[in-house]
Amino acid sequence: MKSWPYPRLVAHRGGGLLAPENTMAAIRLGQSLGFRAAEFDVKLARDGVAFLLHDSTLDRTTSGSGPAGERTWDELAVLDAGSWHSEAFHGEPMARFDDVARALRERGTIANVEIKPVPGTERETGREIAIRSAALWDGAAVAPLLSSFSFEALAASREAAPQLPRGFIVAAPTEADFERLAQLEAVSVHCARQHATPGLIARAHAAGVRVLVWTVNDPPEARRLLEWGADGIITDNLRQFANRFPELL
Ligand code: G3P
Ligand code: MG
Question: Which structural domains are found in the chain, ordered by start?
Answer without folding.
Answer: 9-248 (3.20.20.190)
